[in-house]
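As the next step, I wrote out a protein sequence along with its fold in token form, included below for the reader:
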Amino acid sequence: MFGKIKIGHFDVAMGASCASEKKLVNKYACSVVQGHTHRLGMFFKSFGGDDNTVVGIGSGCLCQLDPDYCSDPDWQQGIIVIKRLKDENRYHAISVPILLHEAFYNEKIYRPKGGK
């Protein structure tokens, strides 16, 4: 747990993007970050109003996208940045995709050394 956010490598891995996160949000009725599917995505649900909106986030992965043990995986590289709002019990989650070995976050492009 990170505050009210449940983070894990859960045992749910469904075929479509965000389907796993949707199932986990409905199961736990709280925000979740899931790493098991290696896919990026966000699913939102409100449980009785704006003050109780939760999100299910697929965190993506940092591994290679062409492993020997899997053919044609539907995976995306990326990370999730979670910020706690100062002096409040509120959090803001940002999905940061890594495309062509580059990530754009906080108005800056991150790339490997020697990259463009």
Remarks:
- Strands lie at 6-8, 32-34, 40-46, 53-59, 78-84, 91-99, 102-105, 108-110.
